[in-house]
Amino acid sequence: MEKNRLEALSDGVLAIIITIMVLEFKTPATGDWTGLASILPTLLSYLLSFIYIGIYWNNHHHMIKLADEVTGGILWANLHLLFWLSLVPFMTRWMDESGFAVVPVFIYGVNLLLAAVAYAILQAGFIRQQGPGGRLAGALGRNVKARISPVIYIAGCALAFVSPAFGLAAYAAVAAIWLVPDRGMERLLRSGGA
Fold first, then answer.
1. Most C-beta atoms within 10 A of its C-beta, which of 13, 66, 76, 146?
2. Could you give the angle at the alpha carbon of 103 between the alpha carbons of 82 and 79, nearest 5°?
3. Around Cβ 67, how many Cβ atoms within 10 Å?
């Protein structure tokens, strides 16, 4: 199967996810700095979720560029990833509307963890399709970020019960780790390895 259809579907779904998140915004009650300050938690939770969707879009794009072809299993793995990512707007709004209560912050972290697991499954499908000596496996190397992220998500989920702010700080730390795209993939793509 051609990979361009998988990429087009994924790009469209991720664009819709971002659009849904921004449409969830409520304008400040007043037209001054106090009004803006009143929605600051909403803006920050949107920013974190937007960054996460952007990270997945960026890494998904690189992975597809290094892929050879798409199998039925890869299509399902991609839909699995898109499912968890499609819940991000709901989770973001729930956190905001609950005043960042423990359970919504915990469930937000679970959602992020499950999206990471889904991405790992998709990535494993592409690596299996290419073989262990393929371009994607070579570009990823030891993939340290992918190994430590689930541990930080789990810690964040646990910390949410101590303080939701600690849980959110852990989730933000994972986002910070991933803000810089995978250097191995970028090097290979720049060298014409795609």
1. 66
2. 10
3. 23
Three-class secondary structure assignment of the chain: CCHHHHHHHHHHHHHHHHHHHHHCCCCCCCCCHHHHHHCHHHHHHHHHHHHHHHHHHHHHHHHHHHCCCCCHHHHHHHHHHHHHHHCHHHHHHHHHHCCCCHHHHHHHHHHHHHHHHHHHHHHHHHHHHHCCCCHHHHHHCCCHHHHHHHHHHHHHHHHHHHCHHHHHHHHHHHHHHHCCCCHHHHHHHHCCCC
Neighbours of 148 (CB within 10 A): 13
Give Cβ neighbours of residue 147 (< 8 Å, ≥ 6 apart): none
Torsion angle, alpha carbons of 100, 106, 111, 117, to 10:
150
Look at the pTM and tell me if it is higher than 0.90. Answer: yes
Looking at the 3D structure of the chain, how many domains does it have? 1
Amino acid at the residue 110: V
Quote the domain boundaries for residue 138: 3-190
Using alpha carbons, list the distances in angstroms from residue 34 to 30, 31, 37.
7, 8, 5
